[in-house]
Structures are given as C-alpha cells and as structure tokens.
Backbone:
C-alpha cells in the first residue's frame, strides 16, 4: 500500500458565508495531494504527459463528516490500496484537521489515456516501477 500526506492551508477565498470550506474545493485539495504524492516518488504529471499519457478523472465521491474553516492546516492523506494493473487507478483520500479529526473522505478514479488517441492505456512503466516496491512487487 502506498500512503502519502500533503499539508494544505485553507485560504479565505475557499470558504463560504458560513466560514466553512466550500465543498467544491475538496476536489482541488485531492488533486494537489495526488500530484504531490506522485512527485514524492520522483515522477510528475508533466513527466507522464511528455510520455504521451494523461489521467482524466472519471469518477469522484466525497463524504463530508466535519467542516474545515479558514486558516485551518489540513492534512490530506493519499492512499493507493492496490497497484494498478491496467488503465484504471483508484486513489482514496482522507482529510484531517490539526487536532487529527477526520473531516472528509474521498475516492477518485482516473484512467491512463494515450494523449494523442484519447484511448485507454496502461500505467507508464516508469511510474509502475516507482510504486511497485510499496506493494511488494518486483518490476523486471
């Protein structure tokens, strides 16, 4: 299993009249956390695009348990429970406040797509080789 944590501070513009983070902003928090988790592996979305692969979101589920507020320092946990075998990758996200309380959970499914043909493709071998050790898999 691969787990990475990213810190995000809530900006004033991300809150609504109730001083609560607007629900639509969580998709951006999840994206920041996914990008940073991949960067931590020594790989980036930019690298993937240069290889001719993009990752569109095809499914997004968010569950709101408690509110986050302006200036809260959030920890967004990104979890890959299984190493993708084909074109589909599923990220789990958990958002915690500074007190360690779980605020929000989410699941985001993305597809690896050939940038030119916009057809499903496998995960780039370079990214797979970076993730494989977290799952006890040897890449040959």
Residues:
């Amino acid at each position: 299993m691969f787990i990475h944590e990213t810190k995000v501070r809530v900006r004033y513009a991300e809150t609504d009249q109730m001083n609560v983070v607007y629900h639509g902003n969580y998709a951006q928090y999840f994206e920041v956390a996914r990008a940073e988790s991949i960067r931590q592996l020594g790989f980036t979305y930019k690298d993937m695009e240069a290889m001719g692969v993009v990752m569109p979101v095809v499914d997004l589920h968010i569950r709101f348990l408690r509110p986050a507020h302006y200036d809260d320092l959030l920890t967004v946990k990104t979890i890959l429970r299984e190493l993708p075998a084909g074109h589909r990758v599923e990220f789990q996200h958990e958002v915690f406040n500074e007190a360690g309380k779980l605020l929000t959970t989410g699941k985001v499914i993305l597809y690896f797509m050939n940038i030119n043909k916009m057809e499903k493709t496998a995960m780039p071998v370079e990214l797979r080789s970076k993730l494989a050790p977290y799952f006890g898999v040897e890449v040959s």
Observations:
- The beta strands are 2-9, 53-54, 57-64, 73-80, 88-96, 102-111, 113-114.
- The longest helix spans residues 25-40.
